[in-house]
Known about the structure:
By secondary structure, the chain is of the alpha+beta class. 27% of the residues lie in helices and 41% in strands. It has one domain.
Amino acid sequence: MRILARFPALTIFAALGVSSPLLAQAAANPTLNSEQNPSSLGARQIVELSVAATERNWYARDHYTFTERDDDRRLDSHGSLKSEDASVTQMIVVNGAHLQQIVEHNGRPPSAAEQKKALEDLDKLQHETPEQRSLRLRNEEENKSFLREILNAFDFQLVGEESVDGRQAYVLQATPHPGYQATGKYGKMFSKVAGRLWVDKQDFGWIKVDGEVTQSFSMGLFVARVQRGSHILLNESCVGDGVWVPARIEVRASARILFVKSLDIDRILTYSNYVLAPGTAFTAVK
């Protein structure tokens, strides 16, 4: 996905969990524990089971092709439209990795330069060396490492149950844990955000995540500062076999660039047409 599809705020609001014996058990069969005694589950157990399912979902997503639409609007400090950009890309699976293929940009087919770049990226991935593949996989694992921090970084409260899109869900509130000491590259942001998570009661997928920045924080070597009140909403859908994938991400963010220039970001990413890529080794866990 695009970088903003992995916007740090999203990972903070959505990702939940650390390693534990319960998590390892759930990874083998994330549905079994709920069926045994659903009424006895506490907030922490639900979160752990959700992470086990999420790690499985992330693995599964790597084997799916899909379409992404990115609508990006930028407003200046006066609320006037500064720029507007819309693109549609097809994500394909090459050598075990996702590769973007531009379908259209602002209603037009890809330019010659964009087509050339896509071919170069395809060739590079098709001829990836073992060292390059190892580095790519290490980077991917590092981007997922925050999962092991979240339970220590947040306090979770089970605030109820709701029906969302016809699915029964646990509703959990996440607030920063006092005194948390960050250990990973995302950890410094954990104390600056809070959110609410809807977890599917059947297989512990994330149906919805709603989060907000409660204190401003810096990104990109302090070039940009994300302002308090920035908001992100994630909706996911189940494509079968308990696999949950992003359906829609809405980002409403205010940022200050170089501590001077203000910019409002209004970005919506929608995902569709998930298809298991031919020739993949993925086998759904039931």
